[in-house]
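User: I've been going back and forth on whether these two constructs are worth ordering. Before I decide, could you fold them both?

Assistant: Sure. I'll take them in the order you sent them. The first construct and its C-alpha cells:
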Amino acid sequence: NNTINQRLVEECHQVRDACENVATVIVFSGNAEVFCFGADFQGIRDRSANGAAEEGGPDRLYDLWHRMASGPFVTVAHVRGKVNAGGLGFVAAADIALADETAKFSLSELLFGLIPACVLPFLVRRIGFQRAHYLTLMTQPIGVEQAHTWGLVDAWEAQSDSLLRKHLLRLRRLSSTGIGRYKRYAQALAPALHECREAALATNTEVFSDPRNLEDIVRYVEKGVFPWEV
C-alpha cells in the first residue's frame, strides 16, 4: 500500500536530489488502488516484536515534504485510490494535486491514539485549519468531489491520466529559474512550514513512542482488531 518507511523516504530524497538541476516537474504517483496509506504499521509491529530500535525519526519525512513545497521545481501529486494519514502529507505538500474519481482521502491517526503532527502544517496551509481539524477528528474518508471543493485537489477527472498529460504539457514551458524564484517568494508569504517543524517532530515522536499506542498497532496488524474493539 505504498506505506511510509525509512526506505521510501530516503528514496524520495534521492529522486529529489537527482532531479533538482535537471527537471522542472516531479510527479508523485502511487498505483491505481492506493496512492499512499500512511505509516508502515507492519514495520512497526516487526520492530516491536524483535525489540529493534525505531527506524529513523520524523525529521526526514517532514523535510521531504518541505522540499516538495519549497524546491525549485513543480511537484505534482497524481492521486488514484486511497490516501490515508501520512499519505495526505504528499498531497498537501505538492504544488499541484490531481486525482481521478476513485480518490478517497482520510486521516485515521486518532483511531490509534496518534496525531497527524507532521501532516497538519502542510494540510492547514492547503485547506485551512477548520477543514484539517474536521478531517483529523472524524477520521473518515472524503471523496474526490469534496476534496476538490475544499481545495485539497486542484483538478480531477474520471480518468486522470489525460488530465496529468495536459498539466505536464503546460508546466514544461516553465523555466527552473523562474520556478525557483517564484517558490522562494511563495514560501516567504507562508513561512509557517519552517516555524512548525520543531513542534511537529516532537509531537510525532511522542505519540509513536507511547507504549499503549504501539500495543494497539501491533494488535491491529496481528489480529485485525481496532483499539476500541474488545
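The second construct, handled the same way:
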Amino acid sequence: VIHYFRHRIRRLPDTPHKVARGMFAGTFVSILPLPGLQMLLGGLLAWVMRGNILAAILCSFLSNPVTTPFFAVASIGLGQWMLGQDSSFGARAIGRAFAEAGEDLWHNVRSAFTNDVAHWAGLHRFWETVFLPYFVGSIVIGVLCGLGAYYLTIPLVAAYQRARAKRLRERAEKLQRARAEREGEAE
C-alpha cells in the first residue's frame, strides 16, 4: 500500500507545487475528526487551493485505524490545553464519554418513535470534553502535518519528475539511434 501510494504521488501529472498543495489539503483534512468526509473535504479543499485533487484524496487515507488513535490522543491533549480544560482526561474518561454519547444517541433515535423524552446530557458532555478539544487540537496538528507534507513534497516530486524526464529523453534518443542504424543498414 505504501509503495503504491508513493508511486502514485510521484507520477501525478502536475507541477510540484500543485501536487504539494493537494498533499497539504489531504493531510490537513485527514487529521480532523470528520470520519467519512475526509476524501470529499480533502478534494474540495485541494480544488479551492488549486492543488492536485488526486493527491488530496490519496492523502486522506492517512486517517486510518492505525494512525487515528495517535492523532486523536495528541489532538485532544493539545485541544484541552488550548481551551484551558483539565488535561488529565484519560483514555477511560474518553471511552466513558463515547459510551454515554452512544447511549444518548440510541435513546434519542428510539424516542423519536415513542413517547420518551430525548436525553442530551451525554452528548453535551461528549461535545465539551472530547469532540471540541479534539477538533481544536486537530486543526493545529493538521496544519503542522500539512505544512510538513507540503514542504517535503515539492523537492521530492521535482526530483522525480526531472529524473523521469531524463530517462524518457534517453530512451527516445536510444530509439532514434537504433532507428537511424536500421535505416543506415537498409541502404
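Notes on the second construct follow. The chain has a mean pLDDT of 88. Helices lie at 2-10, 16-31, 38-48, 53-59, 68-83, 91-111, 121-186.
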